[in-house]
Amino acid sequence: MSVLLSAVATLGAIGAGSAAILYFVGRKFHVEEDPRIEEVQEALPAANCGGCGFPGCASFANACVKAETMDDLYCPVGGQETMDKVAEILGKTVATSAKKIAVVRCSGSCDERPQLNLYDGSSNCAIAAALYGGDTGCSFGCLGLGDCEESCTFDAIHINPITRLPEVVEDKCTACGACVKACPKDIIELRKQGPKSRRIYVSCVNKDKGAVARKACNVACIGCSKCQQACPFEAITIENNLAFIIDDKCRLCRKCVPVCPTNSILELNFPPRKETPPAVKEEATVNA
Amino acid sequence: MNNKLIVSPSPHVHSGDSIEKNMYGVLIALIPAFLVAIYVFRLDALIITALSVLFCVGFEYLIARFILKTEPSVFDGSAIITGVLLAFNVPSNLPVWILALGALFSIGVVKMSFGGLGNNIFNPAIAGRIFLLISFPAQMTTWPTPSVGSTTDAVTSATVLSNLRFNPDSLPAIKDMFLGFEGGSIGEMSALALLLGLAYLLWKKIITWHIPVSIILSVALFTGILFIFNPIPMFNPLIHLFSGGLMLGAIFMATDYVTSPMTKSGMLIYGVGIGLITVSIRLWGAYPEGVSFAILLMNAFTPLINNYTTPKRFGEVVKNG
Amino acid sequence: MLKTFRIGGIHPKENKFSAGKAIQPIAIPAQVIIPLTQHIGAPCQPVVKKGDKVKVGTLIGKTVGFVSANIHSSVSGTVLKIDKALDVSGYKRDAVFIQVEGDQWEEKIDCSETLIKECTLSSKEIIDKISEAGVVGMGGATFPTHVKLIPPPGTKAETLIVNAVECEPYLTSDHQLMMERTEEILVGTTILMKAINVDKAVIGIENNKKDAISKFTTTAKSYPGITIQPLKVQYPQGGEKQLIDAVVRRQVPSGALPISVGVVVQNVGTAFAVYEAVQKNKPLVERIVTVTGKDVKNPCNVLARVGIPVNNLIDIAGGLPETTGKIVCGGPMMGKAIASVEIPVTKGTSGILIIPTFESKRDRMKDCIRCTKCIHVCPMGLNPTLLMTLTEYSEWDRAEKGRITDCIECGSCSYTCPSDRPLLDYIRLGKGKVMGNIRARKN
User: Is residue C33 within a helix (H) or strand (E), and if so which, with residue range?
Assistant: First the structure.
């Protein structure tokens, strides 16, 4: 019995002593923190994805509290709703920004872009890109090895095994920008999601001369500038044999899409056209 | 030429070395010890070894295929080695069902649940032996008498180390221990056979000298120093070296790739640790045999040792002395 | 006991099928494509345009910045265009396309075969001539030679080491050059010694070239200050840092240059190019290329002008074998696999190696079994398996602490790995990222 008592007493004493030490150390080394930081952090989605440009939600919350204006601060995962909540907590105003989504600007699937050699290195786009321009005639196009898929923390981009191209899952993409950073060929771009998720973009990043690009891929942009001429809003620029539709200027009028001789411009989530000029392909209207 | 060219980063040649070559090399190095075991323990040794291998390979295949749902790679040789080493660590009269449990523990718990080859922290065979030792102490510590030179079947008897503790006058000659004519588990018999295996492993560059030599030297030195002050059989370095599982442990168990440190200095620290813990347990611990526990404990330190040791860097020696 | 470097190393099969094959010429094709980047450093600025007439040795690309090297026409004819062409980098880069007409050389170039031993120029004049001639490291690294010969302030050279090791399997271009142009190389070495103001030079030759060792040992007797050092056959004996360790027993510290231990290293082909540049006013426009491989009909050493497509050299060696899987520019350990036979020979093309299909495909990668063989063979004392894992998890700080930037990309780790892990692929990737981080920190 005395053994039991002495055991209980000894362990109890050790426990109490440790608790006391912890309490005093906690008090002495306590860091004073603005309580609003924690409040803001509660309102954030806690994905810690880095899409805001900060290393984590705590860091972003800290920045929000300490910033003069909220203009440069935006959480792409939480979106406008979250930013409004944060603004309310802090009594500051936030700018309203349009919802963005990741867009893959390459349609060079296995059918359209023939394979010329066999890549046998590691399954990693950065490694392949450092080695050479890829296993097709287009040295700018997607390598299909999945660095973008690896980098996505929202399960929103997957490589289609048949086309070997990445496909963005619209409802899951938060436009955090991880895939944009991961792609060594700068193929992925964050563009406005658009009303009813409609958007139009040139699905090509090939800067070779038209003939060279076309030889490598059936749906390459050849820089012929027909789209630029068709656009009534001056939203298309041509640089280095490549057309580019400026997000802010594009009014989704769809005039450029049918005039493209290689069907390089894609229009997503639009209803089918009433008159079907021969150039438009079915897959241009819906994207998964 | 019609085929497409193959493009990949350098280098474009390979030595041809493979996991299989290294594992089967270890099995070849175990052949001398296996032959001595058969000579000393007859058919029992063969049966136990064969069954152990069968159980280990079988469990690994079943677990990989049906539980983990990955591609089983049972013929890379590592499961076979675990089987052989587990068998070498048990008495030749161990009931088969106990052996099967040991194999299940070694492969299932210690190896596969951590992620298979390359990812386990503890040596599967050693952990299996300890599991059996603690769970079935009676069956694991009654050994048959070696039937060298006679046709009589083996009778249960004690080993050198247990005699060392309790009955120091009835020890066999050191020569006999070196050659292998003593009681004990299947693989622990002949230091000579095991050393032949070590020579093979070193020649084929499967392992380096650092771990076996550091274990053997630290055991020899530790006991040697004690022997100088008190020359009783308990402290005799040669007895410690040639009896029990020291040679088997130092050459085949501690040198397991996955569970030993990666740098040369780390390997030396690991070896010395094993040597010191082995002798401490043998001399002052409750068990007569300390190698298994020593190896298991040092396995736990391996990640720490890896973190704090680095290979000899180029450029640290700027001028030659 | 032969001298050798002290850490790591492997011994791949030598396969020197083209050893002893005399240097043979190759016909100049109707058109050559001369890339404007054939060196480490900024690409050259073209100084010719469409329609210009050029001769062999005419300057067509001028240096940009300090670390750069001039490029000269290797043929005579008319400039077709300046356009993008696929080169050994795997991408299309700017190149000068020339329509070949005849084979006229610039007047100032001495085309005779007579050996000119005397050189009365000063160190600065020598370096200027080398710079003008666009000489770069001929071992494959293509570092502009004149930059190496100007030591940074505060450093001084004590010894010149000539790298005649040729440790890569299959390659024999340096060996053949050594046998056929022995005296020229020794004169070139003397000129280099003068350029960096040293009186000691050591020519390191691997022990599998015994004929070259004996020929050089005899001939070098009449060249004061030059000694021949046979070296153990081990890869990467020809790596700059390893060679310095083997010859003078000093190890260049991490992040430092060889000059910090008083040594300048030049490839033996570079020494020959220096002889031609200084004594014959000949810019670097051609080089010896080994064409070889297990199934190649006539493995050979070809003297090829820069700009000739690799295809032409393969034809001379008997054509592309049916069993071809991979074509590598360079040696099997550090060479670059190419996707097209239209890629032109450049200053750094030491060899064209054709690998049969059954040896070209990698085996499936397995988990690391911690066998530590990669650590044992790494000549820089790194932990390759750790560095690969750190790169896979983007742990750049730990990779930097693990000295990933020390990696010389020799390939010994991937060569050795029994689990067929692509160690070098990832280490190269990590090295690039860490070097980028270091550069960003400095700015």
Answer: strand C31-35
Nearest to A90 by CA among A156, A39, A30: A39
Q: Which of residues 215-274 of C touch B (CB under 8 A)?
A: 241, 245, 249-254, 256, 261
Q: How far apart are the first and last CA of chain B?
A: 57
Residue-wise pLDDT for B213-250, tens only, equals 999 999 999 999 999 998 887 788 888 888 778 889 99
Its pTM stands at 0.90
Chosen for mutation from B2, B5, B6, B12 (greatest number of chain C CBs closer than 10 Å) is B12
Distance CA B129, CA B117 (A): 19
- What is the predicted pLDDT for the residue at A59? 85
Torsion of Cα atoms, C289 then C293 then C295 then C297, to 10°: 20
Maximal CA-CA distance, chain C: 64
> Which residues in chain B are closer than 8 Å to C333, comparing Cβ atoms?
10-13
- Please say whether the beta carbons of C347 and C138 come within 8 A: yes
- When pLDDT is averaged across residues C61-76 and rounded to a whole number, the result is 94
Task: Give which of C31, A233, C347, A132 is closest to B9, Cα–Cα.
Answer: A132
Say yes or no: C350 contacts chain B, CB-CB below 8 A: no
C-alpha to C-alpha distance for B71 and B74, rounded to whole angstroms: 9
Q: d(Cα C378, Cα B144) in Å, to the nearest integer?
A: 49
Helices (H) and strands (E) in chain A, counts: 10, 9
Q: Please state at what angle helix B191-203 crosses helix B19-29, rounded to 10 degrees.
A: 150
Confidence band, pLDDT 50/70/90 cuts, at residue A272: confident
Average pLDDT on B306-317 reads 88
Contact A121 C422 (CB under 8 A): yes
Contact yes or no for A132 and C90 at CB 8 A: yes
Who among C84, C90, C432 is closest to A131 (CB)?
C90
Is residue C101 scored above 80 in pLDDT? yes
Q: What is the pLDDT of residues B143-152, one digit of tens each?
A: 776 665 433 3
Please give the C-alpha separations between residue A138 and each of A221, B7, C45, C86, C87, in angstroms, as whole numbers: 11, 16, 25, 11, 14
Inspect the interface and report whether the beta carbons of B9 and C428 lie closer than 8 Å: yes
Torsion of CA C181, C237, C334, C175, to 10 degrees: 20
Q: Nearest C-alpha of chain A: how many angstroms from C425?
A: 6
Confidence of residue A235 (pLDDT cuts 50, 70, 90): very high
pLDDT of residue B62: 93
**C339/A208 Cβ within 8 A:** no
How would you classify residue B151: left for phi > 0, otherwise alpha for psi between -120 and 50, otherwise beta? alpha
| Residue among C293, C290, C289, C291 nearest C355 (CA) | C293
Q: Which two tokens stand for residue A29?
A: 């080394």
pLDDT tens per residue, range A202-220:
999 999 999 999 999 999 9
Return all residues near C69 (Cβ < 8 A) that are at least 6 apart.
Answer: C38, C39, C41, C44, C63, C131, C134, C135, C136, C142, C144, C145, C146
Residue with tokens 């503890």: B122
B8 with A135: Cβ contact below 8 A: no
All structural domains of chain C, each given as residue ranges with its CATH number in brackets, are 123-280 (3.40.50.11540), 373-442 (no CATH)
Strand pairing of C286-293 and C351-356? parallel
* Res C423: pLDDT: 97
- Spatial neighbors of C292 by CB under 8 A, at least 6 apart, are C15, C17, C18, C170, C171, C172, C299, C300, C317, C351, C352, C353, C354
For the stretch A15-35, pLDDT in tens is 999 999 999 999 888 887 778
Q: List chains adjacent to chain B, taking adjacency as at least 3 C-beta pairs closer than 8 Å.
A: A, C
Binned at pLDDT 50, 70 and 90, residue B69 comes out as confident
- Does the CB of C429 have a partner CB in chain A at under 8 Å? yes
Q: Is C336 on the interface with B (CB under 8 A)?
A: yes
Q: Find the angle CA(C231)-CA(C233)-CA(C239) to the nearest 5 degrees.
A: 75
